[in-house]
Amino acid sequence: MLADKVAIVTGSVRGIGKEVAMLYAKHGAKVVINYTSHGRGQEAKKVVDEIEASGGTALAVCADVSQFEEAKALISKTVEHFGKLDILVNNAGITKDMLILRMTEEEFDRVIAVNLKGVFNCTKHASRVMLKAGGSIINMTSVVGITGNVGQANYAASKAGVIGFTKSVAREFAQKNVRVNAIAPGFIVTDMTDSLADSIKESVTSSIPMKRFGSAKDVANAALFLGSELSSYITGEIIKVDGGMAM
Ligand code: NAP
Hints:
This protein is an alpha/beta fold. Helices cover 49% and strands 15% of the residues. Strands 3-2-1-4-5-6-7 form a 7-stranded parallel β-sheet, with helices on both faces.
C-alpha cells in the first residue's frame, strides 16, 4: 500500500509511533524512526534493525520536535538520505497531568511545546518539500481534545489545538495535493496509559462502548489508511479510534 513512499513518524521508538513505523515498513515505505536525545539511540537502532530484518528500509534520526531547528534537521536529513518525503506522521506527544489549581507553568508550557508546537515545527519544514510533489500529513490528536478531561487541561488544549491546526492546514494545502488529517485515539494500551491507577483504568473501560482499551495496531491501521491512496479524497478529517467512546 505504501510502496516507494518515504515516511517520517515522530516519536517512533515505542508505543503508537513504533507500531505505525513497523506497519508502514511492512507495506513498503522507507521509514524514518525519530527519537529524542535522552538515551533513546539504542532503542531507535533496535527498531531500525527490526524493520531491516523483515526486509524493510529505515533510518534513525534524533530530534526533539519541540525545537524548531531540530525539526528542520529531521526533515532535511530525511530528504538528503531518501531523496523525498511523502508522509509525515506527527505522533510525538507527552502528558503532564495535574488539576489546574496545582498545574505549574512548566507543565503547561512543555505539553504545548511538544504536542502542538512540535506539530507546527515538523509540518512547516515538511511543507517546503511536500508542496512540490504532494503528500499526506497525519497528526495524532486525542478524544480528550474533543471532550476535555479532568487533570488534563494542558494536554486537552494541545490536542484541541492540533485539530484546529489540522483543519486550517488542510484548507491551505488542499489544492497542492497535500492532504492533512488527524487521528483521535481514545484509550490505547501504551506506556502513556500504563501509569494510570487500576481504578481509573476500570472506570474508563466501563465508559467505552466496546468495553476495552484499544491497541497501538488499531491506531496504526488508521494511519496506514490515511497515508495510502485509499484515502485520496479525504482531507481535514479527524478519525476517532476509540471503541465508540466519544460518539
Ligand atoms: P508513548 O508510548 O508515551 O510514546 C510517546 C513517544 O513520543 C515516545 O517515542 C517519545 O520519545 C516521543 N516523544 C516525546 N517527546 C518528544 C519530543 N519532544 N520529540 C520527539 N519525540 C518525542 O505515547 P503513545 O501512547 O504511543 O502516544 C503517541 C501519540 O498518541 C501521542 O501524541 C499521544 O498524545 C497520542 N495519544 C495516545 C493515547 C493513548 O491512550 N496512548 C490516546 C490518545 C492520543 P521517548 O521515547 O524518547 O520519550
